[in-house]
Amino acid sequence: MPYFENCLLCPRRCGINRYLTVGECGVDARIRYANALLYKGEEPPISGKRGAGAIFFSGCPLHCVYCQNFAFSQMAYGKPIDLEGLVERYLILQKRGAWTIELVTATQYAPYIVSSVRLARERGLRLPIVWNTSGYETIETLDMLKGTVDIYLADLISLDETFCERYIGAKDYPEVAKKSIKHMYEQVGNLKIGEKGRGVKGLIVRILVLPENVNRIERSLHFLSKEISKSLYVSVMDQYTPVYRAREYPTLRRKITVEEYERALAIVEEFGFENGWRQTHHLKRGVKEVEW
After folding, report:
1. Domain locations in the chain?
2. Long-range Cβ pairs for the range 183-189 (8 Å, 24+)
3. Which CATH architecture has domain 23-291?
4. 206-222, pLDDT tens digit by residue?
């Protein structure tokens, strides 16, 4: 595919020939994935009771020092798979009862995704396609995905330039994310939920609460409320864990407190959002569970 000869798929626009070497995303032109499984930890319209059919792709355009999926996104762990194999994974996950097909960190493979979903639809894939993204996307790639992706599950990491430069390695993230999230919303609208609570089409925006509110979530929520919609589905996450390189940074060395999360929820309410989810983690018999 010509897209990979001078790669401009993500906002880095590094122009690398990924047939010869790896791009800023850390991967070459081969599709690589770390796992494909039923995953129950997402928002209810994405996971249902059986779980989302999640495929975790290798590589990522961002360099978050606290990345929760660092093994495959930052270190590019994974194994090669061709288009036919990807189509088979979609259909196997559907057969196993997946609620949706969730593509996690797949920007660097966008042209392959479009082709694989088209082939899978021809072979009986009926599930909504979820694009699990950092929010760091180009308008051109989003336009490529139009008609392929049904639901955008987008992080809005931070709209603070200082935070983004230091902790995710992308000073331009705020401006890029604002444009991309606006474009996602224009493309698919607010989340529509169909029979049995399954998400059908639309945008969900995730806000991860960090210690000391270092990512300044009020800036993100102000943008979403004023420039997107107060009817937007907002998912407020309490799951931050200091992994990867987080312990190199004093502010990020610990999990958030109950008080910090409650304050984050209060900020969401202050901005008047009507739809969304809060998250609670607890220990039961030594196993970490998620409740929405």
Report:
1. 23-291
2. 183/137, 183/139, 183/142, 184/137, 184/142, 184/152, 184/154, 185/228, 185/229, 185/232, 187/142, 187/146, 187/152, 188/149, 188/150, 188/151, 188/152
3. Alpha-Beta Barrel (3.20)
4. 999 999 999 999 999 99
